[in-house]
TrEMBL record:
<dbReference type="InterPro" id="IPR000228">
    <property type="entry name" value="RNA3'_term_phos_cyc"/>
</dbReference>
<dbReference type="Pfam" id="PF05189">
    <property type="entry name" value="RTC_insert"/>
</dbReference>
<dbReference type="GO" id="GO:0003963">
    <property type="term" value="F:RNA-3'-phosphate cyclase activity"/>
</dbReference>
<dbReference type="InterPro" id="IPR013791">
    <property type="entry name" value="RNA3'-term_phos_cycl_insert"/>
</dbReference>
<dbReference type="GO" id="GO:0005524">
    <property type="term" value="F:ATP binding"/>
</dbReference>
<dbReference type="InterPro" id="IPR037136">
    <property type="entry name" value="RNA3'_phos_cyclase_dom_sf"/>
</dbReference>
<comment type="function">
    <text>Catalyzes the conversion of 3'-phosphate to a 2',3'-cyclic phosphodiester at the end of RNA. The mechanism of action of the enzyme occurs in 3 steps: (A) adenylation of the enzyme by ATP; (B) transfer of adenylate to an RNA-N3'P to produce RNA-N3'PP5'A; (C) and attack of the adjacent 2'-hydroxyl on the 3'-phosphorus in the diester linkage to produce the cyclic end product. The biological role of this enzyme is unknown but it is likely to function in some aspects of cellular RNA processing.</text>
</comment>
<keyword id="KW-0547">Nucleotide-binding</keyword>
<dbReference type="InterPro" id="IPR023797">
    <property type="entry name" value="RNA3'_phos_cyclase_dom"/>
</dbReference>
<feature type="domain" description="RNA 3'-terminal phosphate cyclase insert">
    <location>
        <begin position="185"/>
        <end position="282"/>
    </location>
</feature>
<dbReference type="InterPro" id="IPR017770">
    <property type="entry name" value="RNA3'_term_phos_cyc_type_1"/>
</dbReference>
<dbReference type="InterPro" id="IPR013792">
    <property type="entry name" value="RNA3'P_cycl/enolpyr_Trfase_a/b"/>
</dbReference>
<dbReference type="GO" id="GO:0006396">
    <property type="term" value="P:RNA processing"/>
</dbReference>
<comment type="similarity">
    <text>Belongs to the RNA 3'-terminal cyclase family. Type 1 subfamily.</text>
</comment>
<feature type="binding site">
    <location>
        <begin position="291"/>
        <end position="295"/>
    </location>
    <ligand>
        <name>ATP</name>
    </ligand>
</feature>
<protein>
    <recommendedName>
        <fullName>RNA 3'-terminal phosphate cyclase</fullName>
        <ecNumber>6.5.1.4</ecNumber>
    </recommendedName>
</protein>
<keyword id="KW-0436">Ligase</keyword>
Length: 351
């Protein structure tokens, strides 16, 4: 029996768990995680983290211990046979709360490199909730960006799920893929902005989606509004809520920013918050936004490459430590305004 790789999440959150499970599958190595989500006010597995663990385990037919709410120690052994390939199939995951469906999708995306046949999963939970990417960020920003480097995946929302009831439905489909090294160094000129403004159908009579979009357009700096297009949607949802995502197309890639509606907060202000984030990004030099930066680390581990990021966040620091625990050297080179993140020798030559 292979000795599990010991990992400590004392100074990290849920992303450490999600990435560790993905790396375990990619390397076909068992892991044991202590102090799961150790730096959070309520450590241990919450509903959305348990759903990730259970979905990964079902897809791999893995041996697991600690798969229960509140658990701070998890052992996971993917036990893939032969050359470590992963059979696809159709699965369902019910988070049971407004826990993030998009974060579960993020956890599964790297598995494309070891898939032997398509994998589909239908996820019930929150699609546009705090502390996670809104659905349109996943659909219109992240997936189009990583597709440029060989990832074959698509998602759609059958229903939106806002806080507190969740109840959204996301369908994710992954195809076997070979990833190319990531090269995102220079930004290039601004080419277009796309505003995706969504309201639950219960808010349609207040024109929330339109007001969010208009608030964003009025707040954008310089000539950016002239390059913008709007997509406003009233979506079925068990809970009232709204979200806006601004996709920023530039010479070498795609970035995105977002904001969520809040009770008592004018829709125009929600749009302004998203525009403020877009203005900050446009004033910088990095080709990816600060949230995409740490999400790309696992793909660097698989395929190698380099990405210029706007800041070295706590998520990047924790992700770097995790990748290096798997033997993947992550180099950070700061030039004062941005930082180059590079991986020369990816995990086991995967991708």
């Amino acid at each position: 029996m292979t000795t599990p790789r010991e990992l400590d999440g004392a100074s990290a959150g849920g992303q450490f768990l999600r990435t560790a499970l993905a790396l375990s599958v990619l390397a076909n190595e068992p892991v044991r995680l202590e102090n799961v989500r150790g730096d959070r006010p309520t450590p241990g597995l919450r509903h959305q983290h348990l759903a990730v663990l259970e979905t990964m385990a079902e897809a791999c037919d893995a041996d697991v211990s600690g798969a229960e709410l509140g658990s701070e120690t998890v052992a996971f052994d993917p036990g893939l046979e032969g050359d470590g390939g992963l059979e696809g199939g159709e699965y369902a995951a019910d988070i049971g709360t407004a826990g993030s469906a998009t974060l579960l999708c993020n956890a599964l995306l790297p598995l494309v490199t070891v898939l032997e046949s398509p994998l589909s999963v239908t996820i019930t939970g929150g699609t546009d909730v705090a502390w996670s990417p809104p659905f349109d960020y996943l659909r219109a920003v992240k997936l189009p960006l990583v597709r440029r480097f060989g990832l074959e995946a698509a998602c759609e929302a059958g229903r939106r799920g806002f806080y507190p009831d969740g109840g959204g439905e996301v369908m994710l489909r992954l195809e076997p893929s070979a990833l190319e090294p990531i090269d995102l160094v220079e930004r290039g000129s601004l080419e277009a902005l796309h505003l995706y403004s969504t309201e639950s159908e219960s808010l349609a009579d207040r024109d929330v989606a339109h007001r969010q979009a208009e608030g964003a357009l009025e707040r954008l700096d310089s000539d950016a509004p002239e390059l913008a297009t709007q997509c406003e949607t009233a979506a079925a949802s068990p809970s009232p809520g709204s979200a806006i995502v601004i996709r920023i197309d530039h010479g070498t890639g795609i970035a995105g920013v977002s904001a969520l509606g809040e009770r008592g907060k004018p829709a125009e202000r929600v749009g302004e918050d998203a525009a403020d984030a877009a203005n900050r990004f446009l004033a910088g030099a990095a080709p990816v936004d600060r949230h995409m930066a740490d999400q790309l680390l696992v793909f660097l581990a698989v395929a190698g490459g380099r990405v210029r990021v706007p800041a070295v966040t706590d998520h990047i620091e924790a992700g770097r430590d995790l990748l290096e625990a798997f033997g993947v050297e992550v180099i950070l080179e700061c030039d004062g305004e941005t930082t180059m993140v590079s991986v020369a020798s990816p995990l086991g030559g995967l991708g």
